[in-house]
Amino acid sequence: MPTPRAQLTLAEVAAIAREAHAGQRDKAGRPYTEHLAAVAEGVRARGGSDEQIAAAWLHDAVEDDVLSARWLADAALPQQVKDMVLAVTRRDGEDLVPYTRRILDTPGALLIKESDLAHNADPARLAALEPATRTRLAEKYAQVRRLLGLTPGESPDEQSVQANAAKG
């Protein structure tokens, strides 16, 4: 019987993600690893679990082809982490409706996408882009937020708490 592998620690996951995305730049020319760190920190700050933080570090790895789906399947990670990474991985040519439905249907994935959208839509990041790109991306991020049921700064859970407080 094979010996079970020890689960990767958060530090190991972060190191793997940093190495996989080394040399990659975002649309503004910044090191892509800054985005990964910001999304992971956003998940942590929003009360995310270690599994969600690990998935945040890896959220673009398969989509960007820096780690393969086979690597993820074989990685010493909880299945929940793998499921969240695959949920937020947009497939080539995939429409936003099935993409956002998959995120909503996968436990824990919404918080990762919420943090990703928050960092992507940060006015300081968008300001570094050409006006046409800035406008296109801002519209795309707003559409994804609507499909996910997110209003600016609120997750569906936060909306529910506020609605219940208003009734009370």
Could you characterize the architecture of this molecule?
By secondary structure, the protein is an all-alpha fold. The chain contains 10 helices and no strands. It has helices at residues 10-20, 32-45, 50-58, 69-74, 79-87, 96-105, 109-120, 123-127, 131-147, 156-167. Helix 3 (50-58) crosses helix 5 (79-87) and helix 3 packs across helix 7.
Overall structural class, as computed from helix and strand content, comes to: mainly alpha
Runs with pLDDT <50, length 5+?
A: 153-168
Radius of gyration: 17 Å
**Helical content band:** 55-70%
Report the order of strands and helices.
Answer: HHHHHHHHHH
| Main sheet properties | none
Overall morphology: globular
Alpha-carbon distance between the two ends:
56 Å
Average of pLDDT: 89
Total number of β-strand segments? 0
Assembly status: single chain
Strand fraction = under 5%
Number of helices: 10
